[in-house]
Amino acid sequence: MFGEQAYCTDCIRDLFLPFDLIDDDPTVEQVLDFVARERGINRYDENSFSAYQFPKPIGPEEQLDSERCGLCHRKL
Ligand SMILES: [Zn+2]
Question: Could you give the C-alpha distances from 70 to 20, 39, 42, 55, in angstroms and in order?
Fold first, then answer.
């Protein structure tokens, strides 16, 4: 979840992939760890940042059957 839009992990990875990490072909987790560290965000404390600053995972209660990725429109 980033802003008001849901994205699949592949698109989150592509959206946040820092130039420094391109050669390493990192996983989405590695990308988010890197970006969070750079921005001083504790991504494991979801209450410490807003979904407009940094993507949040979608909880099971928030996940809807009809929800699709905002970028590639793949079903989530
Ligand atoms: Zn996607």
Answer: 25, 24, 25, 13
